[in-house]
Fold each of these.
Amino acid sequence: MKFKTLPIYALAGLLGFSSCSKLLEEKSQTDIIPKTTTDFRELLMGSGYMPSEEPASMVYYMDDDVDLFLEYDNGNSPIAGTPDARRNFLSYTWQPRQADIDGMGDKVNEDPGSSPYAKFYKWIMGCNAVLDHVDNSIGSQPDKDRVKAEALAVRALYYFRLVNLYGEPYNHNPQALGVPLKLNSSVSAEYMQRETVAKVYETIVADLNKASQLMDPLPIVRKDYHINQPAIHILLSRVYLFMEKWQEAAAEANKVFDQGGVIIDMTNMPSITTGRWLNYNNQEVEWIYGGNAQPNQSTYTPAAAFLSTFDPNDIRLKYGFSMVNGGVMLATKLTIGTDLAQTMRSSEALLNRAEANVQLGKLGDALTDLNTLRRNRIIGYTDVNISDKAILLQAVRDERRKEFCYEAFRWFDLRRYGMPAISHRYQNDVGEAVLQYTLQHNDPAYTLPFPTSLLLRNPQLTQNPSGEGGDRIGQ
């Protein structure tokens, strides 16, 4: 999916850097400036929406769903010692230097504008420029409301990702430092300080609530690559889940189904299951955006413990993974190339609601949702009855893990689950020792370090503890 853009409006200002957008003062090579609401919608799509890129794909290597180590016993080439394996070693083993160099010793993020942090803020600035000026554009009020709602919702998504990359989990320490908040496109010579995690979440919730107020009265539009009403409520339900506001999380999930969200039977849908199924042919999908959150699909294997949790008749096992190299299983769930790859879909609303209802003690409602999803994912599934709260909660979370594996969910979920200890095995080269690296319970590395280049450009951007100290040593 390629988007039409207005060429001048690549925003120069990155947070903590020297300049900001002069949106209405500059002209493009074709002397076009945004005047109509349609112009601003195109500006938002070109400068505010995430393109076919995922800046935070490093978290794919950091959770417990992937195994970079693989010993082939069938004559195929091993992963150990390959450039890809070595290049991603520092993220895979949660090293303090991962934001500055890769496992081959090459510098990364040396240009601060290339960092995940800066890329999210670049798109935030695109949203801010639209929000600052669209009210004065030529167009109907409903059209202006839709553009404003989209900009608010997309900005909220970026801040949600940023605060969950660089701030401690909300349910662990909401007063910890999160990320700076830039909510307008004005020029400022001052360096911006990090706000608390709680303050960032407060802004996210405010943006999403305002977005829903603006957009809910409008007709629901699907399959046009713009965020819509159900997707906004899915995201708000997710945010409330991370905040452990269970009642609000369930209420937002309910709105998704009130607005036409559906759960489809994937066990009998040839049009979806004849290929990758995270696209608009899937009626559960409300919004497609961004790039592949699962890099190197042809190289790394699913963790065996995770793979073993799938029912053999689970359709997601059949169409999310591929057998290669004489029986080796690889995760091939997402699109490749330059296609948009990430989705917001109604199955998340169902699982958000199920988890919230478990926490609220509404076990019957949660069990109904769990059985509903499984019945539509597992061939020949028979409903189960679970009356123990802890067991049902784990079952819902296990289902979430399977439904959204390799979609940049698991790392963030592990953080809110209490930052459990997990481990990765790694072999530097064939014949060398297989080492075990462990991320400890409540490990500081659950919050990512900032690149040094960013710290040098913005002295107010203090480093996280995960970026300090010596290398982790495998055992």
Note: Residues 141-166 form the longest helix (26 residues).
Amino acid sequence: MDTFVSAERLAYRLDDVRVVDVRDGWEYEGIGHLPGAVSIPFAEFRSRDGDAGMLPGADRWADLLSSAGIDADDEVVAYDDTHGVFAARFLVTAELYGHDTGKLHLLDGDYSAWSREHEVTTDVPDPEPTEYEPHESDESPLVTFEEVEAALADDGIVLVDTREAWEYEEGHLPGAVQLDWMELVDADSRGLKPRDELQSVLADRGIAPDRRVLLYCNTARRISHTYLVLRHLGYGNLAFYEGSLTEWEERGGAMETGA
């Protein structure tokens, strides 16, 4: 399966993958969820007391996935009900803790899109606990504050701010281009826009596959979705600033204002 998996494809393979619902627990239990999906709410794997940025820490991550019955070699599909941005964060976290990227997938769409044509349930599975063992990713996309500072003067790197235009105008990294992550999402399908439209949007901002692309937002949530989109499109030189503007401003990084 590709990084993004369609509802039709997932429905065919539900028995072969581990499905993770990252919405709040009350949504999972009260509204319903995909058959067989386990609940790992977004708030449970976000913490500034863990590792870099908002990563939860390797021990916390291991506990969450072990309790959910997920093994380190399982194929995982994650979803939310917000066009995939919270689920994308789950998948990027899994990648940063060493899960094989080829086995990490985002539902193309979200719960609302799935429920239009596919079965949902309120039955809660009781998975057999595992012993999930995270490890450091072999080729981590994470970059440090110092590496971002150096990138400001590197013409071969394009800095991408994935926040909304008004946030960008209030303050952004010098030379960064603005690309609201929602510009890559189709309002009707709640999933990705067609490939040619995605490529057009990116080309308009100078975000080319032959350049190193360094992504940031406020707390590394929104860049998670854009990161997965770029990987889906074949971008191979991606940098992920986990600290994002939260760390950048705390450490006195240079900022610009205006459009």
Note: Strands lie at 4-5, 18-21, 38-39, 76-79, 104-107, 157-161, 177-178, 212-216, 238-240.
Amino acid sequence: MATKDNILRAGESVWWGLLSPPVGLGMCWHLGPLTFVVRRYEQEWQFCHRSSLWPDDTPSSWTLSEEGDNACAEGTIERHVFSHTNEELLIEPLLADRSVVIKSAGPILIPAAEQVSFYVSTPLWVRARLQQRHHTLLDIAATRLSDTWFGPSTMEGELCYATTTSGRLHLDDLPVRVHRAITPVRINNAGEQPLKLEKLSLPVPFLSLFDTGTHGLWTEEITLHHDERKELAQVVVGAQPPPPYHQAQRVSASRKTADKSILNKTFGALFGGLIG
């Protein structure tokens, strides 16, 4: 009988890694609100997935087992057909394919000349791709998100996903949610007036994922410098998560790359346009 240890080579501590299941075997993940099944046939990789409603503040865990008869009842089925299926399948976590608009549970006021760090989280995506060909077969969200437009007008901005956050200030207040990634956000109010923060756009397609172990998956730290005397806020993306996770292992790269000027133009304008 196949087990989690000899099919998911990354081991029991993480839900991602390489799969090389025998023909005819199906494996089932329960990852917070997401259930997805991978089945291998002689000429086909088949996926079934469904996502249930899941309150944002609910802690989550994951399990991996052989597929049961009703593991993915009423789910979406995708079939990928080949001449043969003798390649390894890589299951990996990713961040969203669009920016995520974070709306706070209530307005947050940051006095002039103050710096504050928040911990916010966004849902993960699950990607399955053939290890040798680098061919993506599956790219799905663990949590269903609504669409929203974010920008200073209906003519300027971008289509994003929307989620809410409590804007936690301390690590100890963070629930363990394996289907979400934590982004540390530092806001520097360099202006002369208090800054009212109600929502901002996180550029998650430009962020990587790091495995911190005890506190799950994190991204690099984002620093936003706000000054009402300037048209754009300055956006700085760090090289890794902040302490105590400087040494966290990178497990997936960003979906997109951009230099400093592009980040400032794209996200600094949105940040400056909706707060203050």
Note: The chain has two domains: 4-92, 95-124+144-274.
